[in-house]
Amino acid sequence: MQSPQTLAEKVWNAHVVRHGEGEGEARQPDLIYIDLHLLHEVTSPQAFEGLRLAGRKLRRPDLTIATEDHNTPTLDIDKPIADLTSRTQIFTLRDNCKEFGVRLHSLGDKEQGIVHVVGPQLGLTQPGMTVVCGDSHTSTHGAFGALAFGIGTSEVEHVMATQSLSLKPFKTMSINVEGTLKPGVTSKDIILAVIAKIGTGGGQGYVLEYRGSAIRALSMDARMTICNMSIEAGARAGMIAPDETTFEYVKGRPHAPEGDDWDAAVDYWKTLQSDEGARFDNEVFLNADELEPFVTWGTNPGQGVSLSSNVPVPEDFEDENDRKACERALTYMGLTGGTPMKEIRVDTVFLGSCTNSRMEDLRAAAEIVKGREKDPQIRMIVVPGSARVRLEAEAEGLDKIFKDFGAEWRFAGCSMCLGMNPDQLAEGERCASTSNRNFEGRQGKGGRTHLVSPLVAAATAIRGTLASPSDIANTPVSA
Ligand SMILES: CC(C)[C@H](C(=O)O)[C@@H](O)C(=O)O
Ligand code: SF4
């Protein structure tokens, strides 16, 4: 009998074209088949150029899909793109996709949006697949039980040419989250707590498999938030075993299997779970009942605390490097150790990014701001993850709720997650952001980022200081 396998091992083994020879450390890489290759404008130009120089074609244009996201403006999308670099990037992608026969969703197209929002939404991302993209947050697609990971530009070229990749198997780590989340606590808080626990390097070389009753209870949108940020713990990928929630999400989407194919697919997908007794290289346990809204105070996603606690002081850390990192982060963030997190005043609230820009995120935030007043000094920007999310949100009237509240309702893209377009923080500006990275200068030179959930983002826009939904429960609501 075959020994018990983890979910990651099952998906891996189902895609081996050729096993690498040797044992242990000396083992050669396996050749892995790739089911879906996603492209965007930032990491594809050199790969296309490489193919062109070598006189090669794209091996499987039908398994390749591109969208414009990082450099796209979120205002005036019907006008020429003003920023020269952005315009060049986008036009290069358009030319390349035309030349190599790749389906592209351009600005203005109904299916345009952040690559990690678009794949699942179209039903392209399915359980048991191998999914790659020249983008670290490809881990998002692991929420479907796919083995999905970011690759470098030379690997992008390799996949374009061969539809395969040469890789050594990843180690496996199980992240068990048991219990029930309290109201106001979300999957964003789970993942921020996981990263604070294992550190930004804790997942290095691993595929993280999120398991346990708290994970099973999450919607697909919420699962994607968790898998999305696996990379912020240094992991290669994050996965969640597919279940009824997954099947229900995929069913009926444009690229989902139909009829008998659907039944056969679900039968197979049901086998995609870690076997009883499967051995993980590492295990982590977290109690969902104890979790509170979690926010970052520093300049990496691991520098986070419960919203109800204080900004740490360097002496809180035993390790000399952690102490130094704390000192440096406090200086950059303009914070004094010991300050209650809830007293930190912010200037901007950004609701968006591939972490938290799907329907459920927008609905949750809209429910909080509805009929309430925004703090007059706060600028709030709402950027749906895709054009389709924007349309759906408008059909539900969410745009109106946000606009009445005083927030800006934008077109889809990466936007202020990394400021490769005009959506940036000014020097010294402080932002409560639903994105995934709080590195120095990430949202604009000198900008200061606090990573938060959509609920905390919404409550913060009302109170003006970092806040949870329970903090604004007594603020007046108009009809
Ligand atoms: C531009 C791209 C290579 C990058 C990534 O890989 O993650 C970006 O999406 C990011 O979030 O920093
Ligand atoms: S939204 Fe942010 S994290 Fe996601 S792909 Fe775009 S830049 Fe990267």
Automatic annotation (TrEMBL):
Pfam families: Aconitase
GO MF annotation, one: 3-isopropylmalate dehydratase activity
Transmembrane segments: none
Cofactor annotation remark: Binds 1 [4Fe-4S] cluster per subunit.
Coiled-coil segments: none
PANTHER family, A to Z: 3-ISOPROPYLMALATE DEHYDRATASE, HOMOACONITASE, MITOCHONDRIAL-RELATED
Protein's recorded name: 3-isopropylmalate dehydratase large subunit
Native source species: Glutamicibacter bergerei
